[in-house]
């Protein structure tokens, strides 16, 4: 995009320009969302039927139902609701008759992203709604700068290092401060210092220039990145191994160690297992215990080593620890499969909490330290 770059740069020799974006553009979806009529009631999935009913009930009659749903149910309903399109009055009435005994509706309802978000905001905290809507919309729902904030800093720095410093300054000014700082730290010193200087005295960029810059980044960088990025095979395999029960994991790991011991060791370092919960700090353990089902915790700790048990006991009152111990004794013999399922549930809960930023998971492996 020669014109775009020229409007936000100083003439620096030896630096390439962001390419000119295509003339055509993709129009955003209209505010009404999907317009295609929905399927007949008999062809609707369970979440789609529930979504229609909740839309028809509205805020006054549906609020108590929304408040009882967990995140997974909200996600399923949100996905279904946001893609319903127009639901005819006859379909609404048929569903209401089927599920709530002859209750009828006099009008059609419309499901789209905006309506879904507005409705969820009525009953849930804003941060919870934001997380759910981000998941419902998926990557396509994020704007350009949010997408760039999820690009690894070394990849973004490598792309930007040959751009004009003024262009780099504009891009970094739109990122989160943490991500921008990491990118700056990787750029060559002379470029980084120049960029910092320009960011300090940068004037607002005209909207049309910013729009063209976003379009260029989308066509030249993000789309290429999506085609070329590939997850490390060891990371994928570590997640697969995490999902195994312990017998299956042991069988595959032993076989892999015989064939490729180096790969097996790499996978072990990347895995996050139940025993790794012992490495969480006290705050993380307490957050985890507030979220976990107490019966599942008892089953999980029934098959745990002393190191993990002691970490959980240390974050309970003496009375609570005693009651948990008694509950574990009362369980009697427990199937190994049930213990594995309970422990995997705790591991997945810890990962979910880490993804939401509520806890930090640290695994140490020599020079390789992973923070989830």
Q: Summarize the biggest pleated sheet.
A: 2 strands, antiparallel
- Structural domain tally: 3
State the secondary-structure class. mainly alpha
Distance between the termini: 37 Å
Give the fraction of residues assigned to helices. 55-70%
Q: Please write the string of helix (H) and strand (E) elements.
A: HHHEHEHHHHHHHHHHHHHHHHEE
Strand content: under 5%
Poorly predicted ranges = 10-14, 19-36, 101-108, 364-372
Give the strand tally. Answer: 4
Shape: globular
- Mean pLDDT figure: 75
| Highest CATH level, the class of the largest domain | Mainly Alpha
CATH architecture of the largest domain: Orthogonal Bundle
Spatial sequence of strands, sheet with the most strands: 1-2
Work out the radius of gyration.
Answer: 26 Å
What is the CATH third-level topology name of the largest domain? Annexin V, domain 1
Number of helical runs? 20
Can you give keywords for this protein?
single chain, 4 strands, mainly alpha, Annexin V, domain 1, disordered C terminus, globular, 372 residues, two-stranded antiparallel ribbon, 3 domains
Present the secondary structure layout:
Elements: H1 2-8, H2 46-67, H3 71-82, E1 85-87, H4 89-100, E2 109-111, H5 113-123, H6 126-137, H7 144-148, H8 153-160, H9 165-173, H10 177-186, H11 189-200, H12 207-228, H13 233-243, H14 246-259, H15 261-270, H16 282-291, H17 294-302, H18 306-314, H19 318-331, H20 336-355, E3 362-365, E4 368-371
Antiparallel strand pairs: 1-2, 3-4
Helix pairs in contact: 1-12, 2-3, 2-5, 3-6, 5-6, 8-10, 9-11, 13-15, 14-15, 17-19, 17-20
């Amino acid at each position: 995009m020669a014109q775009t770059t020229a409007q936000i740069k100083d003439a620096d020799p030896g630096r390439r320009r962001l390419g000119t974006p295509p003339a055509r553009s993709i129009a955003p979806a209209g505010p009404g969302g999907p317009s295609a009529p929905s399927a007949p009631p008999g062809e609707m999935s369970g979440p789609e039927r529930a979504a229609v009913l909740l839309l028809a009930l509205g805020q006054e009659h549906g609020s108590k139902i929304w408040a009882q749903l967990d995140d997974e149910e909200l996600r399923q309903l949100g996905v279904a609701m946001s893609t319903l399109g127009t639901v005819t009055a006859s379909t609404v009435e048929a569903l209401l008759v089927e599920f709530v005994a002859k209750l009828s509706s006099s009008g059609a309802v419309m499901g789209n992203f905006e309506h879904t978000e507005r409705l969820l905001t009525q009953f849930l905290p804003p941060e919870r709604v934001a997380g759910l809507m981000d998941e419902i919309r998926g990557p396509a729902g994020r704007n350009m700068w949010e997408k760039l904030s999820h690009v690894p800093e070394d990849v973004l720095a490598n792309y930007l290092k040959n751009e004009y410093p003024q262009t780099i300054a504009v891009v970094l000014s739109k990122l989160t401060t943490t991500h921008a700082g990491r990118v700056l730290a990787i750029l060559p010193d002379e470029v980084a210092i120049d960029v910092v200087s320009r960011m300090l005295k940068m004037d607002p960029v005209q909207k049309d220039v910013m729009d063209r810059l976003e379009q260029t980044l989308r066509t030249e960088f993000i789309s290429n990145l999506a085609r070329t990025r590939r997850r490390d095979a060891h990371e994928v395999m570590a997640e697969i191994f995490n999902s195994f029960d312990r017998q299956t994991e042991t069988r595959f790991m032993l076989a892999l160690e015989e064939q490729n011991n180096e790969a097996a060791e790499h996978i072990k370092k990347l895995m996050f297992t139940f025993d790794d919960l012992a490495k969480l700090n006290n705050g993380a353990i307490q957050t985890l215990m507030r979220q976990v089902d107490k019966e599942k915790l008892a089953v999980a700790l029934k098959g745990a080593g002393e190191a993990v048990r002691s970490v959980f006991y240390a974050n309970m009152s003496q009375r609570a620890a005693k009651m948990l111990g008694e509950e574990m004794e009362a369980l009697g013999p427990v199937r190994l499969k049930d213990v594995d399922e309970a422990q995997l549930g705790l591991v997945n809960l810890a990962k979910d909490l880490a993804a939401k930023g509520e806890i930090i998971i640290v695994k140490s492996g020599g020079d390789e330290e992973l923070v989830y």
